[in-house]
Request: fold
Amino acid sequence: MLLLFIDRSFTVPSFDVQVKLGRGNMEIELEQGWEIIERGITRLKNILEGLPEPKFSSTNYMELYTTVYNMCTQKPHDYSQQLYDRYRESIEDYINSMVLPSLREKHDEFMPRELVKRWENHKVLVRWLSHIFHYLDPEFIPRRSLLPLREVGFICFRNLLYCSDDTDLDSPLFRLIKSEREGEEIDRALLKNVVDIFVEIGMGQMDYYENDFEDAMLKDTAAYYSRKASNWILEDSCPDYMLKAEECLKREKERVSHYLHSSSEPKLLEKVQNELLSVYGNQLLEKEHSGCHALLRDDKVNDLSRMFRLFSKIPRGLEPVSSIFKQHVTGEGTALVKQAEDAASNKKSVGLQVFVRKVIELHDKYLAYVSDCFQNHTLFHKALKEAFEIFCNKGVSGSSSAELLATFCDNILKKGGSEKLSDEAIEETLEKVVKVLAYISDKDLFAEFYRKKLARRLLFDKSANDDHVTDLTLARENQTSFEEYLGNNANANPGIDLTVTVLTTGFWPSYKSFDLNLPVEMVKCVEVFREFYQTKTKHRKITWIYSLGTCNLIGKFEPKTMELIVTTYQASALLLFNTADRLSYSEIMAQLNLTDDDVVRLLHSLSCAKYKILIKDPNTKTISPTDSFEFNTKFTDKMRRIKIPLPPVDEKKKVIEDVDKDRRYAIDASIVRIMKSRKTLCHQPLVMECVAQLGRMFKPDIKAIKKRIEDLISRDYLERDKDNPNLFRYLA
Amino acid sequence: MEGKSPINKFGRGHRDKVQQFMAITGASEKAAVQALKASDWHLEGAFDVFYSQPQSKIHTDSRQLEELYNKYKDPYLDMIMADGIARLCNDLQVDPQDIVMLVASWHMKAATMCEFSKQEFVGGLQSIGIDSLDKFQERIPFMRSELKDEQKFREIYTFSFGWAKEKGQKSLALDTAIGMWQLLFAEKHWPLVDHWCQFLQAQHNKAISRDTWSQLLEFTRTVDFGLANYDAEGAWPYLIDEFVDYLNENGVGADGFSRTIGA
Reply:
């Protein structure tokens, strides 16, 4: 078992010392024994200093160990305490006489180097000495609750670092770090070794590392980045600044892995983020030509993604970003609304269709931003939603957005609509419409408009797939049996080809029926059908809606005979001219028994529009009650068969009225439901619950709710509490 | 009803009057204060009130009462109709529009204005100890004083709605309502009554619901002249919210009010 002192780690031999010494009752005096020990210690110190010394053999070691052992175990004079104290003193002595001076004379980078070297030495010294004084450890030390040998040794070194006021350890280290930050190569191993001292010296606790090194390092870091940031914020654009910031964070992270303790990582990054992002966050976002607004405007998705990544790290960092995002989207949306308004005032009707499409595109675009740049973060989903809610509820030139959406759908779905799309494209577009619909508060209004237009499509659109509409299937079967009936009954002859569509009232929107004076030819048709229908059932009442009918007329014009496809109203007006050459407005109105509105509309379509079947006198562009009309015998067109459209009545007012009425019922029902279950409730909570309940379909007006409450009071559903007029009670 | 009010609450002048009243009539302090309050602290009026109120369950001669009823009843119906009421008022030397008739109707729990059933007439007058024209006249100051009582005024006010509206109607016609309000708030002063009536005529033009009627009294009692403590989020009827808007638009409320008052 040869022990080599060049190799600084050696194993402690264990053998029975007692046997070797052959103890007689020979007591060792303190100073006597100490002299032996001290000699050995001094030799060790010299070896550490690199002074020439003969090798320290295992025998030397044993001698020392044995001396210690004897001095501790002998009776009566057990010198354990003294040995313990002198162990410490010799280490302190070494430090004060050798280590401290050597540190003092070093400057700059050389000081930490020296420190590292000294620390390594110290560890060795402590190890050696601990082995020599080892006997104290198992019994004496614990018995007296003293610090273990190794700890004592480390504490001595620790105290050195504290006492050395004139040795500034930090500055050289921080200078090194700064150099590396500035791009220079540095001795990373050195830094790592110094950091390791702080860690090791804590002996399991991080206090020394944190208090003696880390705190100052963090402050230094903060100061460094504060300076950098204050320059960059002035000189750099937002994207450039962010690139730098990202780079810095990456580097600092690497720095930790190179030579700092891992526990420093979050604290270090937090400091850097604070100086670069928190402090200058707002300035950065609001940079005029390159800040968040500009990036959104210029679709800089990469920069925005970086912005998200960076700002998500700082507390409340995303809030200003999402706020700017919301502002931006709202601005874009509002601009679309304005565009549509302008187009509408210039009478470009296609503007509204385009508007809806653009809104859908806007939504697609920014939804992608939310999922890509902003990683689906809820703040941004919320911002998008709120932005859309703001501008989607602005109408355009008198039409509410609910109506515009319904019209948009109608145009996509109907034959001859302004868009020609494949089925898949239609499906896809409608899905997007549904997403936009979520932002509109008047959903019930949309439903009503949609329903009306759907009914129109079902009734008039030949291409519409109506197999799943039972009523229309029934109507077709009806027509078939009507034709059979006509075939079997020779005297049941309408005189003209007649097709009747019978609808069940409850399933369709309500259509007003007017008492049109039918031309005599048609009167017969109605009669014949009525008789037929009586054979089918006596329990149903038929109401004729002439405003929805169509008619094919043969017009015998001088140039050539033509077929005219018109509405029943138009046909009725034209047929009047079979028996009169010239008719005035009032005569026509009297004959037909229609309202002014209807008469104006239909005469306009026949005399002032594309096809002038009637000649109007005077030849102005609008119909007035003093006009007169003549059949235009000279009318012709290159086609043999033309359709003369009659623009439909604007159903908007009626729809809005119907929806308002439904809303009143809905509010009533909601209030009653709430009060029935709560029995008593104060005004404010009642209103709030009502709004919440109805929110899915529409946003109820607070005044409207108040009015309904009062109405319910007068109808004895509710009463006010006698003592508290703010409290309502349900009356069973 | 008011509780004990220590005499020390009042100013010197009032205290003196109470002392005087008590000395002259031998009434208790409470009764003295009550009577004086009812007459706005005029001693003579207070005497009227005090002596005209029913001291206890006064015995009324039911035969006399019946005769009184028959004097005014309609020839064809077993009711006193408008005509009879006019004659009664004339004999009492009271204007038929006088609010005293309203108070009397209230005592009678009359169902509708301008007519009293026999039971209403007899029962009502009996409850306030009247069985002759003289006694009726004597009771008039007392009946007037009842309007000064907070609680009674409220009851009379509430009663007025049912009484003034048409039989079978749920709401009160606007003109009648305005008339009633002007009558009632002449007695219990509400500075905004004219604004209220103007507002209704300009903007509402419909009948008044019972809820609005009763909530208006609350309004007069709780909301400041300056409208400062008006809670727009509260459960005030819609019409009253509109009234407040109207006032704000027309410069009444907060400083607006002081302006119009000054002018």
Remarks:
- Strands of chain B lie at 79-80, 116-117.
- Residues 255-263 of chain B have pLDDT under 50 and may be disordered.
- Chain B touches chain A at residues 170-171, 209-212, 214-215, 218, 233-235, 237-238, 241 (CB under 8 Å).
- The longest helix of chain B spans residues 150-164.
